[in-house]
Amino acid sequence: MPELQDPRDRLIVALDLADVAAAEALVERIGDAATFYKIGYRLGYAGGLDFAARLARRGLKTFIDLKLHDIGNTVEEGVRSLSGLGATFLTVHAYPQTMRAAVRGAAGSGLKILAVTVLTSYDEADAREAGYALPVADLVALRARQAAEAGIDGIVCSAAEAVSVRGEIGPDRLIVTPGIRPAGASLGDQKRVMTPGEARAAGIDHVVVGRPITGADDPRDVAQRIVAEMA
Ligand SMILES: O=C(O)c1cc(=O)[nH]c(=O)n1[C@@H]1O[C@H](COP(=O)(O)O)[C@@H](O)[C@H]1O
């Protein structure tokens, strides 16, 4: 796994909030306890892309989580449009055509493309319901292998699959894991879940944590504890 300069970079805080004012207030409350923020559908479609560009200009790292998936031309041009935001990461779904298009769209921009394998809210029954015959672990491994072949920079999966994914993608690509809960925290809709310490021991590069931080009385303290648990 690539070495980090700053251990705080291991934690990516998911800013799944209703508007930019709420996100700005949370970033201020967390202060220097976090260095990396994710902007997904909720905030992204409510002015969050400009906000992400502002965070990047302040020297914070940003992750644009739009999980793109469309015909190749649309994905390629969409990624190209997003590549000027100064973001560090952008997600696409891990379909070979989509991944190859995203890699073309990001070429030369410095934006790293992450491929989402199987959502952490899916268990075996959910994958079967969606039409997949493979066990989730096998589907994650297949998609990780295809992502590496497509030239993708990193994989989004559950930390439960990190060891097998590392075997598929080698030491230099990134593993980013949502579905992370400090011991005792409510799972919400997450089904393939690990603690920050377990994820780190499994060799992940970054964890993504939303509600346990955004819903906390003291978000800064929770962020600090998560970083410490992964040190
Ligand atoms: O791509 C993601 O970030 C993602 C992939 C995945 O498989 N599961 C997953 O939960 N996420 C995102 O990670 C965040 C997890 O949030 P919490 O469950 O609140 O910690 C959300 O913003 C999800 O959109």
From TrEMBL:
Q: In which pathway does it act?
A: Pyrimidine metabolism; UMP biosynthesis via de novo pathway; UMP from orotate: step 2/2
Which cellular component, as a GO term, is one annotated location?
cytosol
Q: Which reaction does it catalyse?
A: orotidine 5'-phosphate + H(+) = UMP + CO2
Q: Which residues form a coiled coil?
A: none
Q: Which Gene3D superfamilies match?
A: Aldolase class I
**Any single GO BP term:** 'de novo' UMP biosynthetic process
Q: What is its EC number?
A: 4.1.1.23
Question: Which GO molecular function entries does the Swiss-Prot or TrEMBL record give?
Answer: orotidine-5'-phosphate decarboxylase activity
> Into which family does the record put it?
Belongs to the OMP decarboxylase family. Type 1 subfamily.
HAMAP family tied to this protein: OMPdecase_type1_B (MF_01200_B)
For this entry, the protein name equals Orotidine 5'-phosphate decarboxylase
Q: Which organism is it from?
A: Methylobacterium gnaphalii
